């Protein structure tokens, strides 16, 4: 995995992390471009966040990266950027990544000391 982003319902980044600091700006660009695809899929799907299927799948791919998306019921978006060279990663494993991210996000916002809308911090 190269980059993980948690984007709030107002499209403001809540959490961004990368394993490759040299490409951070380029990966952020891909995440912002993916937000347009997420919004488009939500409009075409007529309320995808209200449906049971929260996983959006592959949003788009570039020569070096594959960008996947997930939207929660509260319209918080998870974007994961994965290296295209990682051909061993299958669709069900990407779904598991998003499931785990969603569980971690839920645990973080259920913390009584968390103020809704604030950035998430993690070690």
UniProtKB/TrEMBL annotation:
Keywords: ER-Golgi transport, Transport. It comes from the Eukaryota. The keyword Hydrolase does not apply. One of its GO terms (biological process) is endoplasmic reticulum to Golgi vesicle-mediated transport. GO terms for cellular component: perinuclear region of cytoplasm. Coiled coil: none annotated. It is found in: Cytoplasm, Perinuclear region. Gene3D superfamilies: 3.30.450.70. Belongs to the TRAPP small subunits family. Sedlin subfamily. This is Trafficking protein particle complex subunit 2-like protein.
């Amino acid at each position: 995995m190269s980059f993980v982003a948690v984007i709030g319902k107002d499209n403001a980044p809540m959490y961004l992390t990368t394993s490759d600091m040299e490409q951070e700006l380029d990966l952020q660009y891909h995440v912002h471009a993916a937000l347009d695809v997420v919004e488009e899929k939500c409009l075409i799907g007529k309320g995808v966040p209200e449906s049971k299927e929260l996983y959006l799948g592959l949003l788009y791919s570039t020569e070096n990266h594959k960008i996947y998306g997930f939207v929660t019921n509260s319209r918080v978006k998870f974007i994961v950027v994965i290296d295209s060279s990682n051909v061993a990663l299958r669709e069900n494993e990407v779904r598991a990544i998003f499931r785990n991210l969603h569980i971690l996000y839920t645990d973080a916002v259920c913390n009584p000391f968390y103020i809704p809308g604030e950035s998430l911090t993690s070690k």
